Amino acid sequence: MNKKEIEQILKDYHWMLNSIKIMREAMDEGAHISSKIPMYGLDAAMPKPKGYTGDPVYADVIRRSKHWKKIEWYEKAVKYIQERIDRIKDERESEVLYWLLEGKSYRWIGNHMGLSFAHIKRIRDSIVDQLSDEANVTNDTNGTDDTKETNFRKQKTAC
Question: What does the entry give for GO biological process (predicted)?
Fold first, then answer.
């Protein structure tokens, strides 16, 4: 995941976790089939709109499968953060991360920790860098074309 996606997940983590819990409970309870297809009267005799099935059970199965896909996406995002939390070693960063995951605003965290809004954003940027896979890729070569970097002195021009 790139850094923008990680920032968004950190922002949304708290409600994603709550949504996973609520959605699972609703799906496990076997919520009743909600159908707007009339079974009796004049409306039942009218032609159905094209492109939709008249079977309420099938419509509910489709709705539930979309719901499960959304739950899976939330779980993937939450798991991504949870698997990388141990990368944060600094006490200040781990405190900011904790409150971000609890759904607190930057201003609230800043007031709580006695830091400015801008400082909290800098700490958040550092956290995102550490959580990102891009920052944790090691490369043995410093130069280009797999060559070690050479140290040339910079010379001033005569102009």
Answer: regulation of DNA-templated transcription
